[in-house]
Amino acid sequence: MNDVRRVERTVTQEEIDKVKSFDWAFYYKSDSMEDSNKILECPACEVMIFPPQGSTEFVCKRCGEKILL
Q1: For the CA atoms of 21, 23, 28, 30, what is the dihedral angle to 10 degrees?
Q2: Cα–Cα distances in Å, from 34 out to 30, 38, 49, 56?
Q3: What is the spatial distance between Cα 25 and Cα 58, in angstroms, rounded to a whole number?
Q4: Tens of pLDDT, residues 52-61
Q5: Contact yes or no for 47/41 (Cβ under 8 A)
Q6: What is the DSSP code string of 10-45?
Q7: CA dist 2 to 6, 7, 14, Å?
Q8: Which residues pair with 40 in a beta bridge?
Q9: Is the distance from CB of 58 to CB of 49 less than 8 angstroms?
């Protein structure tokens, strides 16, 4: 089970708006994670796919689309 801590700090409306307006898609695409070059997206159903290292093609398990890597 995750540890949960209750905090007494209140969040202002300005802070909430700042988080809501943040461009998360750009953040995750520009993030330099070690595995980011291995994580792809199926063009048909837009689900994340994780092809085995060294493979040249992959079949999406969700929609069956054949993807050339």
Answers
A1: -140
A2: 12, 9, 16, 20
A3: 24
A4: 878 888 899 9
A5: yes
A6: ---HHHHHHHHTS-HHHHHHH---TTTTT-EE-TTT
A7: 13, 16, 29
A8: 49
A9: yes
Report the relative pairing of strands 57-59 and 66-68 from DSSP bridges: antiparallel
Q: Over the stretch 12-67, which tens digit does the pLDDT of each residue have?
A: 999 999 988 988 778 777 765 555 555 688 989 989 888 887 888 889 999 999 98
Q: Give CA–CA dist 39/67, Å, rounded.
A: 13
What predicted TM-score, i.e. pTM, was given to this entire model?
Answer: 0.43
DSSP string, 46-64: --EE-PPTT-SEEE-TTT-
The one-letter amino acid at 63: C
How many Å from the N-terminal Cα to the C-terminal Cα in the chain?
38
